[in-house]
Model the fold of this input.
Amino acid sequence: MTSSEFTGNRDNFCYRHPDRQSFVLCQRCMRTVCPECQTQAPVGVICPECMTAERKNRTPAQKRAQRRWGGGGTITAVRSGKPVVTYALLAVTSFISLLQMIPGVGGQITDALLFAAPYLYPSLSPYPFEPWRLLTAMLVHGGFVHLALNMLALWMLGQTLEPMLGRARYLALYLISGLGGSVAVAVIAPTTATVGASGAIFGLMASLLIIGRHLGANVTGILVILGINFAFGFFVGGIAWQAHLGGAIVGALIAFILTRTRRREQRTLQIILLTAVAVILLVIVAFIPPLILLA
Done:
């Protein structure tokens, strides 16, 4: 298209500023908007009129979330746009777990990353000291179905939680919940080896329950799903329900902290409390399981 053809078409100019050319369309009404009129949405941008209409159509729960969590957009974009941390976790976890399924190398990957309490206490077992397994167990799974279910849950939960909490808080929630799952396995079943991101996933579900309740939303559906998934671990063999329990407890605790320290001036306190949760988990796993193993 030539320059004269472009300038001759009024659709190539901002509808609010006819003298400003632009190549960007509002994702709602598809009208051209200049940079001054653009508001970032989860996908693309929207114009001021569509933003106003969207704010008017928000539900009471979304309005409460907007007031309590801050930000200038809708509840689905309170902190940022795309949930890039969720996408990164999905990509890394899926890649490593799929490598497990390659004959000849899969077993080596699983053995290198799974978690079992004896790896924390070399003086009580023939295994080397490898504490990083508390977290690396989240990267490997017990099969394709196990991987698919966890990644589907991560994708669904991350779409809501990451934009609401922000990337750093969301990542902290995921990792500390996963740590809580491994610690629960070490304390309750110290001779059990475990793999999977289920502890972290249950932490996300429990945190969504607590945050939703804090915002005044109807959390019955989340509670039912959490209960069904937790009970499922008792009836199907090979599932470490201990990781589910630990992840859910820690996730709920972290969500409680986040809802009580959401103001900007409480950021330092929030970091201290989240760090304290992680430290307490490490202290627990350092002292309680050896007593069980020695019993």
Notes: The radius of gyration is 23 Å. DSSP finds twelve helices and four strands in the chain.
